[in-house]
């Protein structure tokens, strides 16, 4: 049985890491067909718009997309193409795993294995209600948290924990100060947690969470939090395990899901074969989990680890002398 997914090659190093990722997926024989679609600067040059309707139609039709990094030009179009995609498809759950990998430039080469589940559609990060006074002296921003948004993201986190055998969830908030918005999120989280008695649930204020992550990240299993806090925490967690080059992300909704590398387009090294494809490969592993192929997702992750352990054709950021595709071929040889 085959499944068609939308493939967005992206900008900068995007096409290179996508070619590498598809090479590994093809070697695994996972039964995927690829429907190419454009977004970002490539789409602007080819179609005159950053996010063409044909791309939206492709994602809506296939319901699964694998996406390389995109560039949003400064001063025109959307504030962020990624945010726009999340809005249009109601991709409410942002799922960011952070796991220790061997032979990386990491402060924690072992012991970290956590997932940040971030609400993706509301809160301060969305930027609603932004205004500035005529004299330019005062800027304001509206922050909106809803019961619906809070309930579905916390439930997603608990279901994820239950389905993957994880035993502990940390609800991260700032309800001691933000008593209405963060307070509502915490209240709803407590109500949902009561329905999952087999999973340990604790609460932690966001500033303490950041300190604890740096000091003892092994104490965390699944973190669930609001949009802006999750944006910051998930990048902090990536820094614990070697940086954004090893950081995948999933944006999941009821009717569509987009899997990606969360790093940028790195135009300074585009076309040079220096880009590390691991983040997108790990995003592809999340995709395989999502479409019901967890065994092959596990094989892919294990092949990445084995290649890192062997120091086989690693890219320069990992201390090797390989290139993007030679690294991918070394991984493909182990799947």
The CATH topology of the largest domain is given as Isopropylmalate Dehydrogenase
Residues in helices, as a percent range: 40-55%
Q: What fraction strand? A: 15-25%
Q: Into how many domains do the coordinates divide?
A: 2
Shape: globular
Q: How many angstroms does the end-to-end distance come to?
A: 20 Å
Average pLDDT number: 95
Number of discrete helical segments? 11
CATH superfamily of the largest domain: Isopropylmalate Dehydrogenase
Going across the major beta sheet, what is the strand order?
A: 2-1-3-12-11-4-5-10-8-9
CATH class of the largest domain: Alpha Beta
Question: Which structural class do you get from the secondary structure elements?
Answer: alpha/beta
Could you tell me the number of beta strands?
Answer: 12
If classified by CATH, what would the architecture of the largest domain be?
3-Layer(aba) Sandwich
Low-confidence stretches: none
Radius of gyration (CA) equals 20 Å
SSE string, helices as H and strands as E:
EHEHHEHEEEEHEHEHEHEEHHH
Tell me the major beta sheet: 10 strands, mixed
